[in-house]
Amino acid sequence: MNATGIHYPHRCKVCRTPIRGIRAWPYRLRGIVPFAKNPQLCNRCSKVSFPAVEQEITVLFADVRGFAALSERTPPERLRQLLNVLFAAASEILIQNDALIDKFLGDAIMALFNAPIPQPRHREAALRAAFALQERAPSLNLPFSIGIGLNTGIALTGNVGSGEVTDYTAVGDMVNVASRLSGLAGGCEILAGLATWEGLQFPLPPGYECERVSLQVKGREQAVEAYRIRPRQRGP
User: Can you say whether the dihedral through the CA atoms of 123, 129, 133, 134 is positive or negative?
Assistant: First the structure.
């Protein structure tokens, strides 16, 4: 268990190398330690060349609403502190749901489900993480809310780059759609692509409402169909 109370496994979830406990010491001496993007993996798995594979994954993007305006009136160091609070909470939730935190993109987070950690129920895991993050956000006492976009589909996963500079990520149209959905999601909202939400026996948490919407997404001629999930509006 670490300082946040998360129980991390003793072995890497991909290659099964010991990364914690007594059995991990010989590997630590060889420089094999938990991977920063997800401490459930080892850093060796982050360095080896994962073969490029087309597979079904779910991608989560979460970003801050009104970040440009916030940046204008907030000193950079204070802004960094606020983002660190958000990223720490998001990292805990995402790792608990076996996501790979792909990137911190300024005020945004990108996470992958079902790559490289196999997750047969990756749609459910991504939704659990999205709801948990929206539920946690108010308790962080931050001067902003977040919007979350989810999408499921076939993407190309694996290491990109060359030489010493490589990074495990996912590329494809479904990733772009997930990013666009997060940009269109209002504060406290989740926009889930059809493939993420439809046909899934996932109970809508109490206090939320869900409706199908047609959205015009930048860079696409045809509208994108999605489900808008948000806290139910209370009457007067």
Answer: positive
